[in-house]
Amino acid sequence: MSIPRTLTIAGSAAQGSAGIQADLKTFQELDVYGMSAITAIVANNSTTEQGMFTQPLEAIEAQIYASMEHVGPNALKTGMLFTEPIIKRISELIAVSSVKKIVVDPVMIGKMGSQLLQDEAIQTLIEHLLPLATIITPNLQEAARILDEPAPRSPEDMEEAARKLYKLGPNYVLLKGGSLTNHSAVDILYDGDTMRRYESERIDTIHTSGAGCTYSAAITAELAKGRTVESAVQIAKSYVTSAIRDALSFNRGIGSTNHAAYRKNEQR
Ligand code: PXL
After folding, report:
1. Which residue CA neighbors atom 9 of ligand 1 most closely?
2. Which of 32, 165, 248, 254 reaches 20 to 30 Å from 149, CA-CA?
3. DSSP 158-195
């Protein structure tokens, strides 16, 4: 029996909503075989910023090698990469690999405020990794940091930013408008030719930890199945909207997106 295979290269989020944990849950929910390479362990809580443990380059490389050699992903995604040397090494490994469907989520700051990419690493991300991507999935704040300009404030601003991001070398740009105020949750997909909009209602919740990771993991899963980017984004948008609509609160600050919601909603 054969199954589409996916790899996530990202940070471990001990609290379970984001990072590797979100990715593997999403892969499982969408019926693909999930693998992981952990770049850093994030175990922050609300009172300390001490819980960040970057993994040695050898350990990251060994995990990627094991996944590539033993199984072979049909698609991969990158999430939290944190440092310049990690981004450089991962970019080299991706460039020489046979994986051609590459989702780059340019993770910078966690929902709970953890810094997940060092400031000096942004330029390395732009130069080394973005050009290898099939699709990049920045939110408005990440787009602003990458372009070094103010965050887009309307869908029209977003289209302009998507055009600029496209020039950095990815095949597709998905600019996520979840944080636009007074607007539906609109995302813009641009392939250098056509602008597409994916829209859903704005859901009033603070429990959105893991939404970005989950969205890009769902895109990766659908690309691994052989779907087009346009169709993968459509399904992933619907998956993440379900996950936010049925979000989980643990009665302590920001709760988690619900990775199982899409499956449960489908069965209703
Ligand atoms: O949601 C962004 C994110 C990504 N990766 C890791 C995280 C977080 C947020 O907390 O911990 C590892």
Report:
1. 110
2. 254
3. HHHHHHHHHTTS-SEEEEE-TT-TTS-EEEEEE-SS-E
Give the type of residue at 25.
K
Q: What is the per-residue pLDDT across 63-122, written as a single tens digit (0 to 9) for each? A: 999 999 999 999 999 999 999 999 999 999 999 999 999 999 999 988 777 889 999 999
Instruction: Return d(Cα 64, Cα 113) in angstroms, integer.
Output: 28
Burial class (CB in 10 A: 0-12, 13-18, 19+), 58: exposed
pLDDT at 190 over 90: yes
Residue 259 φ/ψ, nearest 5 degrees: -70, -20
Q: Which residue has tokens 């996950």? A: 243
CA 2 to ligand 1 center in whole angstroms: 31
The C-alpha atoms of residue 200 and residue 158 are separated, in whole angstroms, by 16
212 lines ligand 1 (CB under 6 A): yes
CA of 80 to the centre of ligand 1 (A): 7
**Encoding tokens for residue 157?**
């601003």
Nearest ligand 1 atom to alpha carbon 14: 11
Identify the burial level of 10 via C-beta atoms within 10 angstroms of its C-beta, where 0-12 means exposed, 13-18 middle and 19 or more buried: buried
Judge if the beta carbon of residue 109 lies within 6 A of ligand 1. no
Categorize the per-residue pLDDT at 44 as very low, low, confident or very high, splitting at 50, 70 and 90. confident
Nearest residue (by CA) to ligand 1, atom 12, is 11
Model confidence pLDDT, tens digit, residues 122-145 = 999 999 999 999 999 999 999 999
Q: Please give the angle made by the CA atoms of 23, 29 and 32, to the nearest 5 degrees.
A: 75
